[in-house]
């Protein structure tokens, strides 16, 4: 790598370090209605910096493991990209986003009418527990997923309710369910529905198989934020085994899309799988039960690194 490019990259990663160090002091207000464990909304300034520093004009932004889609919604609403493609294999996540894009009025009526009580929490939890055989779009499942994400601690779908089942805690189950703000977000995002693609595919297929004929890989930026290696089973409905992480690393390195980056928990397995891509440490702040900072890895394709100026 030429010395001047090395300096550019050093400056870029120094800026990322500064941004990530500042994020724990000023957690930005998210632009997604869906709470999600390990969500990366706080990395929006980092991603925006990456896009600004790249010599490529990215028309489409893709998340193969979208979860809460905080960054995608920020880029969409700020018109940083022309289109976003959000994908998740989890039926609940997919159903929520599909409902928002395809049936926004129905979703907004549901948000307005749903009671924020333990009786309703138990009813919505039953929908989640009975969803194992659901395939394709299911409005009720998407709504239940949304409800649990807003009323459970840290947005963990099968986690405990905020305030406890007796609702004797300092905070109650409705403390993260500001209907006015959530309706505003749904309304704003759904107004851009013609610029949103929502799919329910294996994330690996998104990066390795042609899905939409009008997608131009050279003008796409892919952000892979897969399930963590550590403690994944307790956080996600669909978690990865080691073999899945191995397959994804191969898929990204041989992706249809030359410009991709990924974030992962700092684990020896990931360092080994991506040792040829020089993983960089970034600090991320989470509020899973208590606010904490975690070291994560930022991994970029060689082609994306080469575009940074």
TrEMBL record:
Record field: catalytic activity: a 2'-deoxyadenosine in DNA + S-adenosyl-L-methionine = an N(6)-methyl-2'-deoxyadenosine in DNA + S-adenosyl-L-homocysteine + H(+)
Example of a GO MF term: S-adenosyl-L-methionine binding
Family matches, as PROSITE patterns: N6_MTASE (PS00092)
Origin: domain of life: Bacteria
Gene3D superfamilies in alphabetical order: Adenine-specific Methyltransferase, Domain 2 (1.10.1020.10), Vaccinia Virus protein VP39 (3.40.50.150)
EC number: 2.1.1.72
InterPro entries for the chain: Ade_MeTrfase_dom_2 (IPR023095), DNA_methylase_N6_adenine_CS (IPR002052), M_m6A_EcoRV (IPR012263), MeTrfase_D12 (IPR012327), SAM-dependent_MTases_sf (IPR029063)
Keyword terms, alphabetized: Methyltransferase, S-adenosyl-L-methionine, Transferase
Pfam families cross-referenced by the UniProt entry: MethyltransfD12 (PF02086)
One GO term of the biological process aspect: mismatch repair
Protein family: Belongs to the N(4)/N(6)-methyltransferase family.
Protein's UniProt name: site-specific DNA-methyltransferase (adenine-specific)
Species: Corynebacterium hadale
């Amino acid at each position: 790598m030429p010395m001047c490019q090395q300096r550019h990259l050093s400056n870029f990663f120094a800026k990322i370090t500064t941004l990530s160090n500042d994020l724990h002091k000023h957690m930005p207000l998210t632009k997604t209605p869906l709470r999600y464990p390990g969500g990366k909304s706080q990395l929006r300034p980092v991603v925006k910096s990456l896009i600004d520093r790249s010599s490529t004009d990215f028309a489409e932004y893709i998340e193969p493991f979208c979860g809460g889609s905080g960054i995608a919604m920020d880029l969409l609403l700020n018109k940083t990209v022309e289109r976003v493609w959000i994908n998740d294999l989890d039926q609940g996540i997919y159903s929520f986003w599909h409902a928002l894009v395809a049936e926004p009025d129905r979703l907004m009526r549901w948000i307005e009418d749903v009671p924020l009580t333990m009786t309703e929490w138990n009813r919505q939890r039953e929908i989640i527990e009975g969803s194992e055989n659901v395939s394709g779009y299911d409005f009720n499942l998407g709504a239940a997923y949304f409800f649990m994400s807003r009323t459970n601690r840290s947005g963990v779908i099968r986690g405990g309710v905020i305030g406890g089942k007796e609702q004797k805690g300092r905070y109650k189950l409705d403390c993260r369910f500001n209907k006015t703000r959530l309706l505003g977000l749904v309304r704003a995002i759904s107004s851009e529905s013609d610029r949103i693609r929502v799919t329910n595919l294996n994330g690996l297929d998104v990066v390795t198989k042609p899905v939409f004929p009008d997608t131009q890989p050279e003008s796409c930026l892919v952000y892979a934020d897969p399930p963590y290696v550590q403690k994944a089973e307790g956080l996600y409905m669909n978690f990865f085994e080691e073999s899945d992480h191995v397959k994804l690393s191969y898929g990204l390195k041989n992706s249809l899309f030359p410009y991709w980056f990924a974030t992962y928990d700092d684990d020896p397995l990931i360092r080994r799988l991506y040792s040829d891509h020089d993983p960089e440490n970034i600090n991320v702040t989470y509020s899973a039960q208590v606010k904490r900072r975690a070291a994560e890895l930022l991994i970029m394709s060689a082609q994306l690194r080469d575009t940074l100026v």
